[in-house]
Amino acid sequence: MSIEIRDVTKHYGSFQALKNINLTISKGELVALLGPSGSGKTTLLRMIAGLESVEEGSISFDGKDLSTVHVNQRDVGFVFQHYALFKHMTVFDNVAFGLNIRKKSLRPSKQEIEKKVHELLELVKLSGFAHRYPSQLSGGQRQRVALARALAVEPKMLLLDEPFGALDAKVRKELRRWLRKLHNEMHITSVFVTHDQEEALDVADRIVIMNKGKIEQVGTPSEVYDKPVSPFVYDFLGNVNLFHGRLQQGKLNLGSAQLDAPDYIDKDETDAVGYVRPHHLTVERVRQSKDEIAAKITFMHSIGPTWHIEMRREDIDAYVEVELSKEEFMQLDLKVGEIVYVSPKEMKVFIPEDFII
Amino acid sequence: MKKKKNVLPGFGLSMGITTLYLSLFILIPLSMIFIESSKLGWVDFWKVVTSERVVHAYKISFITAFAAALFNGVFGLLIAWVLVRYSFPGKRLIDGLIDLPFALPTAVAGIALTTLYAKDGWIGQWFSAIGIKISFTPIGITLALMFIGLPFVVRMVQPVLEGLEREVEEAASSLGATKGQIFRKIIFPEVLPALLAGFSLAFARGLGEYGSVVFIAGNMPMKTEIAPLMIMTKLEQFDYAGATAIAVVMLVVSFICLIFINFLQKWSQKHVLQEE
């Protein structure tokens, strides 16, 4: 089922949670709503589910406007961050709930329900747990029960609100892989909310990046990561180094060095900021050109195969973070306190909006 | 042999104080009732507790206490629901009002209720117009006990309702449940243990209530006499043994009732209790 969101705006009192949201999610897609807390991503998800009312704009499924349809008629499966299981019911009864409460004419027979529940428990790898209570399960298991419960009613779409947010790192990774696999098998239109960019990049077909109630960018993981359209997206999707300078004839002048900024050949004498990812910086022990930035190494540590090197620029009071592979690091043989020369391999220049006017 | 050490310190001391306290204020006084009543001997004891007037008083006491607790169960749940789920002006005031029956001298309540519900009282006149007498009937007794017992139910249920996660209801709703189904299948089972606890407290309080009832009951033998009143009457005649005999029966029957309710409560709670 495709979801179409048109001009949706939401206020809570004087606070504007969503501003003019337009978004189309096609059938069978797995979309991530990514943003910091307060960005409106959960509000949007809850509006799609029907848990929040739509006051301005419309939300339609397959072309049918459902803005005023109650959540219990929308055919959506919703998974909550804190599982929201029925704790006085067994795992079996939790999963069977959506089927058991149906009107007699629509309700499958007892045997059918039983078969379905066992199939789903198999799917979420909890076959032996049918008669346990939620309190006897771990967090990851509870969330899998919640997922099975949502899938039992064969929803037309699956909505997940920070589904792995309450789990520890390892379980989280495992579950998100598993969600991806499940989605590949079932092709159910799914939207999940997360504030973890790694999770969004890892799982989603498409990522919707939200900030302050607005959509900043929509695109595939590689699109948004490689071609961020705004400083916010650049910053949010990973670590970044900022180089403040002035644009002069297609160059960003930092004072001590001049960096290429070919996108802005027509902009002259404008303050701008160069955004560079830590792994897009090269490090040299010997100065190769005058446009390298001298910096003193202050701290180094390794996480698995990558070395993180923190250095302080010699020209101004600012820190630069560099990521090197183990090989590069070994070759350079860096030590804390040494002065090295860094230059960006790739840089994206943004003109801060405050300065335009 | 090594003594097993408890992780939490102070068990010996706190358990000692607990035992002493319970003995001094509950166990010893209660056993005095048994000791005192045993002075009667079996035959006299049996005669006292099975005399027609006393048996009738027991009946009135248990039936009215039960009926009042039942009403309080229903309306206490409703009131707690309204106080937790909705916000409206004066909510804090109403919330404070709930506790008033705890604080008010019971005789004051009794007199107020009697005047209000008497045949020519403010409210009583409307009922007497349609042929229902409230004051000086078992209905009046029930009314007084409802007044006394309400806070127990509301205060037991309220925190449980407050603790219910909104998301659980939203989850049920997204699975297609109607509001009625959510209440019956999700909310009620969670509230039931607390509701039963409130019910049993209100019931127990109703059984022992004396002050507010004696005014509204009218105390007509074989009609509106309650068991505590019978005990008072015996005491006034310096028949201590007879008074304690009635008390023993009250005590034993109440104890059985409470155990039964407790059992019900455990049963309804068994799933929640399986935490760990």
Can you walk me through this structure?
By secondary structure, chain A is of the alpha+beta class. In chain A, 27% of the residues lie in helices and 34% in strands. Chain A has 10 helices and 20 strands. In chain A, strand 17 and strand 18 form a beta hairpin. In chain A, helix 3 (110-123) crosses helix 4 (139-152). Chain A is elongated and about 80 Å long. The model of chain A has no long low-confidence stretch (mean pLDDT 89). By secondary structure, chain B is mostly helical. Chain B has one domain (41-273): MetI-like fold, CATH 1.10.3720.10. Chain B has 14 helices and no strands. At the A-B interface, strand 6 and helix 4 of A face helix 9 and helix 10 of B.
E-strand count of chain A: 20
Q: How many DSSP helices of chain A? A: 10
- The share of residues in helices of chain B is over 70%
Report the count of strand segments of chain B: 0
Strand content of chain B: under 5%
The CATH level-2 architecture of the largest domain in chain A is identified as 3-Layer(aba) Sandwich
Which structural class matches the secondary elements of chain A? alpha+beta
Q: Can you tell me the CATH superfamily of the largest domain in chain A? A: P-loop containing nucleotide triphosphate hydrolases
The CATH class of chain B, by name, is Mainly Alpha
Oligomer: heterodimer
The chain-level mean pLDDT of chain B equals: 88
